[in-house]
Write a structure and sequence with these properties.
By secondary structure, the protein is α+β, with helices and mostly antiparallel strands. It folds into two domains: about 30 residues; about 110 residues. The protein contains one helix and eight strands, in the order H-E-E-E-E-E-E-E-E. A hairpin with a 2-residue loop joins strand 2 and strand 3. The termini are far apart.
Length: about 160
């Protein structure tokens, strides 16, 4: 057999083999959708109000029997109420991060003061531009604690 014809046959065989492999790989891939769904943008935290013991209202009197959180609609905003019963001497500070469909709220006692009373601390968070659902997770850190613990969670709707 002529070595040139043999080499040509081997190259033709390899070409056909590679062509079949490429076709099989393309069959495994789904057809790309020409109109991909837009990624959902995270909700916007428009405003935070600190009420109750933060502004003297409810100081040294407690109207709740337990900590609680709930949401309601207010105009175009989703309003999350977080109500905490803490010692009147507490120095509570909060921060919020919003990623995709989850709002993480962090509340920490930054001074550790103690008084002889319990007080209502109320945080009102106003969210706009929220999607079909929004998850709320509230974390609390005691004074001098190293980590936050999950205080409560809620899902809208």
């Amino acid at each position: 057999m002529n070595p040139k014809i043999f080499s040509l046959g081997v190259m033709l065989f390899l070409f056909m083999l590679m062509s079949c492999e490429e076709q099989n790989q393309n069959e495994d891939k789904p057809n790309p959708d020409p109109t991909p769904e837009p990624e959902e943008t995270p909700a916007n935290l428009a405003r935070i109000d600190h009420l109750g013991c933060f502004n003297g209202a409810g100081y040294q009197k407690n109207t709740m029997n337990s900590d609680t959180m709930y949401y309601e609609m207010s105009n175009d905003s989703l309003l999350l109420h977080v109500l905490m019963r803490k010692n009147c001497g507490a120095c509570l500070e909060d921060s919020v991060t919003v990623r995709q469909d989850t709002a993480n709220i962090y509340v920490a006692d930054t001074c550790g003061r103690v008084a002889n009373c319990i007080c209502d601390y109320r945080f009102d968070y106003y969210f706009t531009d929220f999607g079909k659902q929004l998850f709320f997770k509230v974390y609390y850190r005691e004074y001098e604690a190293h980590e936050y613990t999950l205080w409560g969670e809620l899902e809208y709707p």
